[in-house]
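Entry type: protein chain
Record version: 2
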Amino acid sequence: MTAGTRAAGAPGEPPAPPGAPPRPGSPVGPAPESVRSARSGAPRRAGRAGAGRSGPPVRAGGGPLRYAAVVAGLLFALAVAVTASLALGSVRVPPGQVLDALTGRAGPSPYRTIVLDVRLPRVLLGVVVGAGLAVVGAVLQALVRNRLADPFLLGISSGASAGAVLVLVAGGGIGLLGGVTTTVALPAGAFAGALLALVLVYGLARRGGTMTGARLVLAGVAVSYILSALATLLLVLAGRPEQFQEAMYWSLGGLGSARWDTLALPATVLVLGTGVLLALARPLDLLLAGEEGATVLGLDTARFRAAVFVLASLVTAVMVAASGAVGFVGLMAPHAARLAVGAPHRRLLPVAALGGALALVLADLAARTVAAPQDIPVGVLTALTGGPFFLWLLRRRPEGPAL
């Protein structure tokens, strides 16, 4: 290396004369952004050799005005999507009739029954499930510090689906499950399956008392395949073709079974779960700094991960029990939210929830109208859009997260 390419102050090199231009590599001039960030105490992007490479950087996504604008825009888009979902379908309802039904000004009529008893519970369930899956996806991406993580990738949704299918088969089919059985047994079976998947993933990922995000993701993929195969086997052995058809349609994801009495549990779990996760926003941000950094800052990462994984399993189980297996919402919505408002979870989680709700309401609207009067499983449409999005993520970051 020649003297002209050495940094100033190298051994054996004389100092530059006064007035001479700075040599290449000289620290003269404004400090680099990473140095300025470190001096000011602001969070910074991890280096290439750091563990933060596999997790999203903790960066702000603009000031309060931009955040307020993003939230307002999502709320407006969600209101438009909900109104369109109430008006469109195999039977079109005039917008005036939709407004009259919602405000109580409409008397008994077929339009009022369609809006209030059929479509409104379905649309609200789409809002709740989409928001819940998006919040869980955002949290899981922080826990494993992997941009490709979501409830399905870690096997939680497959475990919940297998548990719910077992309840359906044991109960004699969806048509024979009603009342307390539907509202209690189905979520309980889904939660048991999700916890079983969580235990299996944890057991397979731990080695020598430690667990890395890479092993966690790989174990989750393996457990997801096994439990999906188990759910399919249960459906095949169900014995009655009509039962197989009903349960298979449910396992593909759909909101057609939504009723007013099935909304209370998922809505309650969404509100309470999101509230707890918002209270844990700072520890979640610490995890993005890396395992060692979070430990140095006083976080018991092993215990915190276990507790949040149980909470994520509960939320996922209730959502899967209510809507079936709807994939990729927990992958796409957090990424879009992170691009809009940054990675800090106090800002990210509300925006991800609104984005997930909007995405699932629009997907369900398309499922009801594309081939009307036939109702396409909404999980099929989310997979058709989520698969290309997954490939786009891989192409956009060719180095990818370390697996």
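Comment: The first helix runs from residue 33 to 40.
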